[in-house]
Amino acid sequence: MMRIGYRPAHLAVDFLNANFCGRRQEVQVLDVACGSGLVAKLMSELGFRHFVGVDGSKGMLDQAAGTGLYQDLRLALLGTQGLPAETGVFDVVILVGALGPGFAPVSVVRELCHASKPGGFICIAKGSHPGAEEIYKKDLERELQLMEDEGLWSLVGIKPTDRYMENAFVTTEADGKDEQEERYITGNVYLYKKSISTSIEIND
Predict the structure, then answer these.
(1) Angle between helices 108-115 and 133-149 (to 10 degrees)
(2) Counting CB atoms within 10 angstroms of each CB, which of 51, 52, 144, 201 has the fewest?
(3) How many CB atoms lie within 10 A of CB 148?
(4) In a 3-state reduction of DSSP, which class is residue 10?
(5) How far apart are CA 105 and CA 111, in angstroms?
(6) 164/80 Cα distance (integer angstroms)
(7) Which of 72, 147, 135 is nearest to 108 (CA)?
(8) What percent of the chain has a predicted confidence (pLDDT) above 90?
């Protein structure tokens, strides 16, 4: 059952699965910012079997290792270190959270694309937090569109939600006003498919 407080992993996996055609048990998945392994747990319930995880915290990687789902786990701080993934290897690259001011920079999305096989899926879940996040979101969506314009990938779809996750900064004290909208932050799940002919960018 989906825990209302933290929904991003469920939203991303559900949207990816609804658009995925193929033999899930043969798919190679790169789980970026894997944390404790929630994404792999959800995907394994849908038949996915092969996972490589990346995270900037050794403690999180230790928890992910405890799931027994990952064939490999790699330590790397996104934005500070390059994404430790081979180019063009993964059928699915998924990143839930992590993108935001003070965390992974917008430039990381190109690394996600590079790690995907031609024709592979790149799934990104991002909350629309208030404040500086607004500027970050504009920069992110500008980069996503630029990569599409460059022919690196094509948009499969964007799934918006008004209940991405609970807003940790909102109190639940009864003060007579409707707090339903403030209780949750909105967010999007972005799903892209890497272009088959991306080899032209290497030859140029």
Answers:
(1) 40
(2) 201
(3) 14
(4) helix
(5) 11
(6) 27
(7) 147
(8) 71
Cβ proximity of 42 and 64 under 8 Å = no
What's the gap between Cα 7 and its chain centre? Answer: 13
CB neighbour list of residue 193: distance below 8 Å, 6 or more residues apart: 119, 120, 121, 122, 153, 154, 156
pTM given for the model:
0.88
Find the farthest-apart pair of alpha carbons in the chain and give their distance in angstroms, rounded: 63
Strands annotated E in 116-201: 116-127, 153-166, 184-194
CA dist 112 and 25 (Å) reads: 21
**Cβ pair 161, 188 in contact under 8 A:** yes
* Euclidean distance between CA atoms 34 and 17, whole angstroms: 18
Strands of 28-32's sheet in order across = 70-75, 50-55, 28-32, 90-96, 116-127, 184-194, 153-166
pLDDT, tens digit, 9 for 90 and up, residues 19-53:
999 899 999 999 999 999 999 999 999 999 999 99
